[in-house]
Amino acid sequence: MHGRKLVISALAPETAAAFLWNDKLKDSISDRKKMIEEDRKTEASPLQAAAQGLIENAIGPEETRSQIQKDLTMLSEKCVHTFPKKHNNIQL
Question: What is the pTM of this model?
Answer without folding.
Answer: 0.42
